[in-house]
Amino acid sequence: MKKFSVVIAGGGSTFTPGIVLMLLENLERFPIRKLKFYDNDGERQDIIAKACEILLKERAPEIEFKSTTDPEEAFTDVDFVMAHIRVGKYAMRELDEKIPLKYNVVGQETCGPGGIAYGMRSIGGILELIDYMEKYSPNAWMLNYSNPAAIVAEATRKLRPYSKILNICDMPIGIEGHMAKIAGLSSRKDMIVRYYGLNHFGWWSSITDKEGNDLMPKIKEHVFKYGYNVDVEEYQHVDASWSDTFAKAKDVLAVDPTHLPNTYLKYYLFPDYVVEHSNKEYTRANEVMDGREKFVFGECKKVIEQGNTKGVALHIDEHASYIVDLARAIAYNTKERMLLIVENKGAIVNFDPTAMVEIPCLVGSNGPEPLSIGEIPRFQKGLMEQQVAVEKLVVEAWEEGSYQKLWQALTLSKTVPSAKVAKEILDDLIEANKGYWPVLK
User: Fold this and answer.
1) CA dist., res. 230 & res. 233, Å (int)
2) How much is the average pLDDT of 138-155?
3) pLDDT category, 235, cuts 50, 70, 90?
4) For residue 288, which of 8, 32, 15, 59 has the smallest C-alpha distance?
5) Is the pTM of this model over 0.85?
6) Pairing state of beta strands 367-370 and 356-364?
7) What confidence score (pLDDT) does residue 242 get?
8) What are phi and psi of 235, to 5 degrees?
9) Known active-site residue 268
10) Which of 7, 72, 313, 400 is an S-S bond match for 36, by CB 3.0 to 4.6 Å?
11) Are 200 and 150 within 8 A, CB to CB?
């Protein structure tokens, strides 16, 4: 059985140990000969890497391990690039969230002005990784779950149209875990779903079990009462802010009871509620820095100090398994049905063929084969057309260095009340993102 070489781009991420643990748990399904970490912040990566090196020596000493800040060393002789970078790290995320909130506008990592700001930082970073991969390992595939996935996916479609990159997101996977619990199933893999939309902007139109029994009525009944809140054991999405997000799904569902919504739709349909329930001094970024960030780095330092992983609480993240499934689908041509962000090309008949949509695909060694969705309802189509225009304008603004187009993107966002407010937020974001964004004229 062929063994694969993998580089994790964003080796200093708090999600990296979870990815490594998942890869180790799946070595029989997806054997690895070499694992590399790449990050442009060597100091941050070093802590995660030293802990993971000890972990690997304990569990799979045969795997060659390397941690580097040198692109040639990182990207030479690799089969898969697993990319989860955060340009500007959590310090910039904090500004993405707090600047819009100054103007009583949604301050969120991937939605509204914060997502646009983050997207403007992420585009260059992802294109750089693609270029390294194509230069040093032209046959490799990139599995990209860097946010904001919608803007990044549009940028790769437009600016690197022939690159071997698959853009994915873990949020529908997390929600489906809750749905499976509601339906009384042991795993989300026991469900067959039909889902469509944009990233962080979609709906489930059908959910059945493997025998074809309709699970939508049971799941909807629960969501109308409790949202997606259920008693599940997970390590992500457990803070109070997530509980509120899962609960708010009941109000989002009420707007269109025929389709089960992605939780992120609350930011677009109830922005006033979101702002009202936001702490302008202590946002989600602060929660993550004080929670997950301190926990993961603390546990990694403990591993390094004691020289082993005994008593350490590092754990697999729920989205990590999806990445292994995706790598296996490409490596072994499994044709597994998975949600991916792909160019529409008629899959949604009554929607822009160039839009990057999130829909089920069959994944094999040649990449994804999108499944036909057919026509979508007017309500969803209208929302999606507005949002896809925002995403396309952001990418055009980045490519052209256009202040005008970025102002238009912010004005068009459903989270922003007026062109005046959009301009005020934009000017603040430009100041905060000096050195990260292209110069806008």
Assistant:
1) 9
2) 97
3) very low
4) 15
5) yes
6) antiparallel
7) 76
8) -110, -25
9) no
10) 7
11) yes
Contact 174, 319 (CB under 8 A): yes
Active site residue 264: yes
* Residue in 38, 132, 145, 264 annotated catalytic: 264
Annotated catalytic residue within 79, 96, 170, 428: 170
Alpha-carbon distance of 18 to 166, in angstroms, equals 20
* Residue 321 confidence (pLDDT): 80
Distance CA 87, CA 84 (A): 10
Average pLDDT of the chain is 95
Best CA proximity match to 260, nearest among 196, 305, 314, 318: 196
Residue type at position 22: M
Residue 40 per-residue DSSP state: S
Phi and psi at residue 212, in whole multiples of 5°? Answer: 90, 5
**Residue 99 tokens, joined:** 């600047």
Q: What is the pLDDT of residues 74-88, one digit of tens each?
A: 999 999 999 999 999
Q: Mind listing the pLDDT tens digit for each residue in 383-409? A: 999 999 999 999 999 999 999 999 999
Q: Which residues pair with 191 in a beta bridge?
A: 209
362 contact partners, CB below 8 Å, separation of at least 6: 335, 336, 337, 368, 369, 371
Phi and psi based region of residue 189 (left: phi greater than 0; alpha: psi -120 to 50; beta: remaining)? alpha
Please give the Cα distance from 138 to 130 (Å, whole number): 10
Give the length of the chain: 441
230 burial via Cβ count (<10 Å: 0-12, 13-18, 19+) = middle
Where does residue 367 fall: left (phi above 0), alpha (psi -120 to 50 degrees), or beta otherwise?
left
Q: What are phi and psi of 315, to 5 degrees?
A: -140, 165
Distance CA 19, CA 263 (A): 24
Percent helix, strand and coil across the chain, each to the nearest 5: 50, 15, 35
Q: How many CB atoms lie within 10 A of CB 121?
A: 21
